[in-house]
Amino acid sequence: xxxxxxxxxxxxxxxxxxxxxxxxxxxxxxxxxxxxxxxxxxxxxxxxxxxxxxxxxxxxxxxxxxxxxxxxxxxxxxxxxxxxxxxxxxxxxxxxxxxxxxxxxxxxxxxxxxxxxxxxxxxxxxxxxxxxxxxxxxxxxxxxxxxxxxxxxxxxxxxxxxxxxxxxxxxxxxx
Length: 175
Fold this sequence. Notes:
Layout: E1 4-5, E2 24-29, E3 34-38, H1 42-68, H2 80-87, E4 92-96, E5 100-104, E6 113-116, E7 120-127, E8 136-142, E9 147-150, H3 156-174
Antiparallel strand pairs: 1-2, 2-3, 3-4, 4-5, 5-6, 7-8, 8-9
């Protein structure tokens, strides 16, 4: 991250002096755009990991019972990527470019995915489903009806700040 500057500390930047909520970091990469990073509190990280831990506990229980009853079931785990999935993403960030949102490192094996601004219908603060324990998140709805959840576990203050900025960014597309 040495190739980026904090725009809130640069007097020549329009974001100069903006007070960021705790857990958010804003930077402007040399390659362009604005990167917004979220760091979750330990409680929210634990809540995010709870469904995965329950799943692993169920699998371990099934394996122990299968061994005990001499029923041999073949389970294939992905090794270290499976452990990364269990832990969940340590750092969540989104790169806001002029014409797209790039959600960084949320896919399997750390791949990013891109949402073109023209395909985004709306962005709102909402709750995700049962598998993420109905935590607060930013919900991005695309023009084809699909939805993606960003920053699952975000606090109310952080969500309001990020949503306001993304609404301004979306509004610039229509102007």
